[in-house]
Design a protein that fits this description.
By secondary structure, the protein is α+β, with helices and mostly antiparallel strands. It has helices spanning 18-32, 34-44, 84-91, 97-102, 113-128, 160-170, 181-194, 228-233, 237-240, 287-290, 377-393; strands at residues 49-53, 56-62, 67-71, 78-82, 107-110, 154-155, 172-176, 205-210, 215-220, 251-252, 260-265, 269-271, 294-299, 310-312, 335-337, 344-348, 353-355, 363-371. It is built from 11 helices and 18 strands.
């Protein structure tokens, strides 16, 4: 199995013709993929949707057996208005419904946001040939075919094949004791020293407001430029070898202006982005161009239920579910990831996750990540086919990555 799920590349493309899309492209894709759409549509109990594109309405409805697309307005249900350019971005997976909503560019006079997210699932299932997730659609097995312990933690020097298998199955890893308390104490001191060099509106930091009206610095970007200890840490084999776990060629530093961020997690945030609710990192768009990248959290201080721990939904990277928010009746389990100082968490960019707001103790953490190499569609398809053939023939064995120190 590979965590490289990419299927699209950037480049010139023909501007979308909305009428052709709704009268030909979409109905054809819906009919071709009805086996992956039907069970999910029945479970979701889809309500009709009127999607108005530059003033022209199109009615989408589910009759219990098929999706129909008609010119005009649907009776009842939800109604949303977008532009042709937004439709182009939606179809090509450059943006999602959540992307429009969070940017304030989604006009929805009637219905719930959840109605649009349900229909987004139908659109992606039709265009990307992926079934909509229904209860019981995801299982978790260990390398011997038995039930997988979703609460398991690892050490970075554990069997790489075990790490890889767990990551592929669940979409996350918890690695204990990767860095020392002394190393994290130095990072914490340098966070305090760097904080005055960031300011509200500088374009290089995030701020949030607490209940007492104070503006609090919550995220310092490009932190390796501000912290010698962090600059040394991201060159350390203990960090760099994390990229080798999926064996898909992940690379660090593909965002040279923001390779690693340092976060404060204050208590009592009432405005601004600090503790983000359930979401995938690809929730705003570009899943099929970039997933799955690896997001790495380094616990500068420990975290638990009262100090802002991370929570994940195992298997969500393998399931076509809402890309953000709490989807009603979703059966995917929730796993808390309490950490000690120096622990590392890894999650795939398609894994649903959230940070609990701290209520008793503030938390400090750094986030970085590893991106996939340049995408070659033909080579990626061949590699996936070879990997499937090998894994069907014999158990997987993976050698220790060069330079790995544990």
């Amino acid at each position: 199995m590979s965590v490289d799920l990419r299927s699209r590349t950037d480049g010139a493309r023909e501007p979308i013709d909305a009428e052709r899309f709704f009268t030909d492209t979409l109905p054809t894709a819906l009919a071709a993929n009805i086996d992956g759409i039907g069970p999910g549509a029945r479970w979701l109990e889809l309500r009709p949707l009127t999607l108005e594109v530059d003033g022209v309405p199109w009615a989408l409805s589910w009759d219990g057996n098929q999706v129909t697309v008609d010119a005009g307005t649907a009776e009842h249900g939800a109604h949303a208005r977008i532009t042709r350019e937004q439709l182009d971005d939606l179809v090509s997976d450059q943006q999602t419904i959540m992307g429009f909503w969070t940017s304030g560019r989604l006009e929805q006079p009637t219905g719930r946001l959840g109605d649009l997210l349900d229909w987004w699932l139908v659109l992606r299932a039709a265009l990307d040939h992926q079934p909509i997730h229904t209860p019981g659609g995801i299982s978790f097995v260990d390398r011997d075919g038995g039930p997988l312990d979703l609460g398991r933690s690892f050490r970075s020097d554990d069997d790489p094949a075990e790490l890889r298998h767990f990551l592929e199955q669940t979409g996350f890893l918890h690695l204990e004791g990767v860095f020392t308390e002394e190393e994290m104490a130095q990072v914490s001191r340098e966070m305090d020293a760097a904080a005055p060099r960031y300011s509200l509106g500088d374009g290089n930091s995030w701020w949030a407001k607490t209940g007492d009206g104070d503006d609090r610095l919550v995220r310092m970007q490009a932190f390796d430029d501000e912290s010698p200890a962090t600059a040394e840490l991201v060159r350390d084999p203990r960090f760099l070898s994390l990229a080798d776990i999926p064996a898909d060629g992940h690379e660090w530093g593909k965002r040279p202006r923001n390779r690693i961020e340092a976060l404060f997690k204050p208590i009592g945030i009432v405005q601004g982005i600090s503790d983000v609710p359930w979401h995938k990192d690809c929730s705003l768009g570009r899943h099929s161009y970039e997933c799955c990248s690896l997001t790495v959290g380094i616990s500068v201080t420990g975290a638990d239920a009262v100090s802002g721990q991370l929570r994940v939904r195992p298997g969500s990277h393998r399931a076509l579910v809402w890309p953000a928010m709490e989807q009603p009746n979703c059966d995917l389990p929730t796993v808390d990831l309490p950490t000690c100082t120096g622990d590392v968490t890894i999650h795939l960019s398609c894994t649903l996750h959230m940070a609990q707001p701290p209520v008793e103790r503030e938390r400090r953490v750094m986030y970085s990540g590893f991106a996939l190499p340049a995408f070659d569609p033909a080579a990626a398809a061949e590699a996936r086919a070879r990997l499937v053939a090998v894994r069907e023939a014999a158990p997987v064995t993976v050698s220790q990555p060069p330079g790995h120190t544990g």
